[in-house]
Amino acid sequence: MPDRLIPSPIPAFGPHLLSLSGMTQERITGILDAAEAFLDVGQQTVKKVPVLRGKTLVNLFYESSTRTRSSFEIAAKRLSADVINVTPSQSSVTKGESLADTVKTIEALGADGIVIRHASSGAAEFVAERVECHVVNGGDGCHEHPTQGLLDLFTIRKKKGRVEGLTVAIVGDILHSRVARSNILGLSAMGAHIRLVAPPTLLPRGIDGWPVEVFDRLDRGIEGADVVMALRLQLERASGGYIPSLAEYSRFYGLSREVLERHAPKAVVLHPGPVNRGVELSGEESWTNDVAILDQVEYGVAVRMAVLYLLMGGGGGESAPPNAATRGEGL
Amino acid sequence: MKESSGGNLLLTNVTLFDPAEGILGGAGPLLVLDGRIAPPGTPAPPGTPELDGRGGILSPGFIDLHAHFREPGFEYKETIASGSRAAAAGGFTSVCVMANTSPVNDNAAVTRAIVDRAREVNLVRVFPIGAVTRGLEGQELSEMGALASAGCVAFSDDGRPVSTALMLRRALEYSRLFGLPVIDHCEDLVLSNRGVMNEGSVSAELGLAGIPNASEEVSIARDLSVLELSGGRLHVAHLSTAGGVRLVREAKRRHLPVTAETCPHYFALTDEAVRCHGTHAKMNPPLRREEDRLAVIDGLRDGTIDVIATDHAPHAPHEKEQEFDRAPFGIIGLETAFALSLDLVREGFLTFSELIYRLSTRPAELFGLPRGSLRTGGLADLVLLDLSGEWEAGRPGYRSKSRNSPFTGRRMKGAVAATILGGRIVYAREQP
Description:
- The complex is a heterodimer of chains A (331) and B (432).
- Chain A is α/β, with parallel strands linked by helices and 331 residues long.
- Chain A contains twelve helices and ten strands.
- Chain A has helices at residues 25-41, 67-78, 90-95, 99-108, 123-128, 146-160, 178-189, 218-222, 246-253, 257-263, 293-312, 322-329; strands spanning 56-61, 82-86, 113-118, 134-140, 167-171, 193-197, 212-215, 227-230, 268-270, 290-291.
- In chain A, helix 1 (25-41) crosses helix 6 (146-160), helix 1 (25-41) packs across helix 11 and helix 6 (146-160) packs across helix 7 (178-189).
- Chain A starts with 24 loop residues before the first helix and ends with a helix.
- Chain B is an alpha/beta fold and 432 residues long.
- Helices cover 31% and strands 22% of the residues of chain B.
- Chain B is built from 14 helices and 18 strands.
- In chain B, strands 1, 2, 3, 4, 5, 16, 17 and 18 form an eight-stranded mixed sheet that branches. In chain B, strands 9-10-13-14-15 form a five-stranded parallel sheet. A three-stranded parallel sheet of chain B has the order 6-7-8.
- The longest helix of chain B is centred in the middle third of the chain and has 18 residues, at 213-230.
- Chains A and B meet through loops of A and helix 6 of B.
């Protein structure tokens, strides 16, 4: 382990990670620096540090998610926490236990932290108001997905060496995207120039105050960008009348090797996944641009380790920073 | 309908305020004999109970044209008894209750049950509003004649808009038989597209589905065009948008038979309140932007908006304490309406006389209720007001069975000191 960083756990951070709203550049930089240290853990043969030994993390996922849930699970296990996955089916939700009762039950079982993924905007804050344990927002409705925002920032920093001053184009369904909202907050805190590229039907009303430039044409929106981030398009947007068809969406907003080469040849290409091939990104195999989608997945684990450590690593004897801890384990 | 008669009461040390009779600041006392206001100068019979008004203002009791008492069917949210207690504490002596009960108030039996129960409770006068369509389903007209005979004072499918322009036409035409108004919850449900709050900068940031102003405006425009065709009387419920105010103003200029109400939350709050009050700031129509709030106040000032109603909509804690998009729409309002409205007077938007007119005299006129004044011989439904009385909303609790209000904990200025129904004191504030 490199002998740097790891800011002191809880005081700098607060008990929960619900949103990137109000996060300063310093705080985000602190998290990214911590993630850098945890990235090294993933390179070890024994990919484990004991900093959350004896702690229990519950992944409470009301929406199906392979990627985010696995990422949190691996992150927590690498920190030696016990992880329980709870995935209430929609049927049991309609049968009746309320979210408030469910999270109180989980807390009573002894959870130290809850990662909540839920279809309702504001659900993570709702949970945080009702439990004493730590809450991490794993994506709430169309509101925020803060760890995705952080891992995107981390990826950009790894690829470009910095975030400040870069031009980042976010392309697609801004209206329904929690990834976009967290990224806009994080990128603007870090001093990036943000462009939103979307058809008018997929752009929220009332964003005049946002620190963004809005484009409705892809070529102009990505022109000269350092980073192009495609958002996932839910396939039901066509039946919902937001776009005429996936084919037309792809024609106007799909990223292809050709359009990237012509307008943003130096751009790193990001996508939160899972990708709809042939919709947000063309299906071709070879790209001249740096397509960093798998890097995002790898970095996501390190970023989530950092977040869980910073939130839950305080208090008690298990809270030594990973460099000290790893020495203790003799890694 | 035979009004229940009341007792005798001498109200001393009060200032009389009655926009209807042009009594604006007259000196008391006021004598009530057998539940009715006695001619000035009548000597009080020996043994008449006396209420010292402590220099407060005595005005006609408030009249709410829009409340939900939830009985029958949803007694866990509110009952006629608890709703009546809340109304009395808020200075209301008459309350019109909406038809979205279970069973729906679309037939005379339900109407009579509500009226009978309210008479047993006997704290406020309750006037049922009948459904426009059977089961509120928007398919067939309810038996408006039977409803009117049983005591309904208006018709509404409130909670939903009248389903189609044709159904509204028929309802407005047919209701002319009885001279009663049709109240519409003006909303284009398709355009609202399952939105849960005002569409604007706050919804964009919170990632909540928005209801655009146009949802209300499109529906009001439809209704006004139909009204021009059908005749009858249209009352627009809970006006919330600048565009809606403009449409009603223009229609009134053209002398269309339209009236309108708004509610205290539309002139006291904006959609920013959703950030800190969550589902307690969720109602339909939603809280709008500042420019809408100011337009609503302007509408009250120039008479485009006739009355202040509460849209008192109780919901149980387990219903409101849910994810924002799952929680039901609506907040309680009877107990906070007066103090919030009085802010408009303090801020110079309305005169005190205009305020009483919009809370009492004008609503009585609209629904043809023979009250809302201090005229000699009239029913002694009165409210005694302490304009400088300070209190905290919802502390220690509400009289309503529910507590879903964004105003809980707010310092209020302007208190109801006593409420008098037919000369009987039905509410008296504990002396602080």
